[in-house]
Write a structure and sequence with these properties.
With about 290 residues, the chain is of the alpha/beta class. It has 11 helices and 11 strands. The protein has 2 domains: about 150 residues, 3-Layer(aba) Sandwich (Malonyl-Coenzyme A Acyl Carrier Protein, domain 2); about 60 residues, Alpha-Beta Plaits, CATH 3.30.70. A hairpin with a 5-residue loop joins strand 9 and strand 10. Keywords: Acyltransferase, Transferase. This is [acyl-carrier-protein] S-malonyltransferase. One of its GO terms (biological process) is fatty acid biosynthetic process.
Length: about 290
């Protein structure tokens, strides 16, 4: 996220002040240290970048993991300030959930969701993210991930450990739920002015507060969500998160995707229907 703090200061200085207030210090210089700083910084950056794009109101908003908080803010369910406070609470709770660092995450190179589910079942792991074709993430104890890597290697596959601070979207994040719930309890969730879809259900959000809690320990259904949005008529996807990871996932899911500017990906179907637009908001690593 190099330069992201300067970008927020330039685009939305009010958001920089708000995220500093939510965290208690400027999180941008410390994003590489811990998810407690990275998460509120990513949310501030995403909100600022969306503001700068000047897009018409989208037909749907879809967030990847942490991006669900951004999606709720853009959809009018919560305010930007509430989104930053939720991100700060979520980041701190997740950072503290595994103090001994026994958990992590890993990417399965090939075989898709079926191979990942089989490998997870054999090694007491879970499928944490169904991100895109060829991009499925496992989570669990490091010792079990290492055992799964050996099994995969023996069959000609590969499990590659990710540089993350915990087993996000797995039962090892249960201790984080209390901290996030405390922050949620102080917020009045409102009806959306724009449909917000949840990556917990790959469908329109029906209980956004509960989806945020469930998202700590449930898989991110990003690929199924993109496919469901496409089936609902959405044809163009704009990624406003920092980096281009989520744009890459959309491009894998829809091979005909092409970039439009340095912060957006436009997904054009072979037979476009209408001019619907979905804002797909993700985090910089597409796993937290």
């Amino acid at each position: 996220m190099e330069g992201a703090g300067d970008e927020v200061a330039r685009l939305r200085p009010d958001l920089l002040e708000a995220v500093i207030a939510a965290v208690g210090e400027d999180p941008f210089p410390r994003t590489g240290e811990s998810t407690r700083f990275a998460q509120p910084a990513i949310v501030a950056s995403s909100l600022a970048r969306y503001s700068a794009l000047g897009l018409p109101r989208p037909d749907a908003i879809f967030g990847h993991s942490l991006g669900e908080i951004v999606a709720l803010a853009l959809g009018g369910v919560i305010t930007e300030g509430e989104a930053l406070r939720l991100a700060a609470a979520r980041g701190a709770a997740m950072a503290d959930a595994d103090p001994e660092r026994i958990g992590s995450m890993a990417a399965l190179r090939k075989g898709g969701i079926e191979a990942a589910q089989e490998l997870a079942a054999a090694h007491d792991l879970v499928v944490a993210c169904d991100n895109a074709p060829g991009q499925v993430i496992l989570a669990g104890r490091i010792v079990d991930l290492d055992a799964a890597a050996e099994t995969a290697k023996a069959s000609g596959n590969r499990v590659r450990r990710l540089d993350v601070a915990g087993a996000f979207h797995s039962p090892l994040m249960v201790p984080a739920t209390a901290g996030l719930q405390a922050a949620i309890d102080g917020i009045d969730f409102r009806p959306p002015h724009t449909p917000v879809w949840s990556a917990v259900t790959a469908a329109p959000a029906t209980d956004p507060a509960q989806h945020l809690i469930d998202g700590l320990t449930s898989p991110v259904l990003f690929r199924p969500g993109l496919l469901a949005l496409h089936a609902a008529g959405i044809r163009r996807f704009v990624d406003v998160g920092p980096g281009d990871v989520v744009a890459g996932l959309a491009r894998r899911t829809f091979p005909e995707a092409e970039f439009a500017g340095d912060a957006a990906v436009v997904v054009e179907a072979p037979s476009p229907v209408g001019d619907e637009v979905a804002a797909a908001i993700g985090d910089d690593g597409a796993h937290a």
